[in-house]
Design brief:
By secondary structure, the protein is mostly helical. Helix content is about 80%, strand content about 0%.
Length: about 100
């Protein structure tokens, strides 16, 4: 049975499972985005199949994925902070070099 977005409910569960599995594979995909997709599609699936016998396991997966998403978000913030620090270091090194040439 299709839901309002035109996809059968099980499609959301399958898509979420694929996103979750991709988190364990080495690739260049954005892991935070995969987590968000998995969480979103698991939630959509549960809206359309609230009596699924695996609901407790799916709820647990959503909780774990939410924790991972928080971790990936924090790592992204650290990456941005480190990039900013590296840019500042480059600017300072250039100033030091220019100051040395001026002396």
């Amino acid at each position: 049975m299709a839901n309002e977005d035109g996809f059968p409910a099980f499609w959301h569960k399958n898509f979420a499972l694929v996103c979750e599995k991709l988190l364990h594979v080495d690739h260049s995909l954005d892991k935070a985005r995969l987590c968000r997709h998995a969480i979103n599609h698991f939630r959509q699936y549960l809206q359309h199949a609230p009596t699924d016998p695996d609901r407790a396991h799916i709820d647990e997966a959503i909780e774990i994925l939410t924790q991972r998403l928080d971790m990936y978000t924090k790592l992204d913030q650290v990456d941005v902070h480190l990039e900013n620090m590296a840019q500042r270091a480059d600017v300072l090194a250039e100033r030091v070099q220019q100051h040395g040439k001026a002396s």
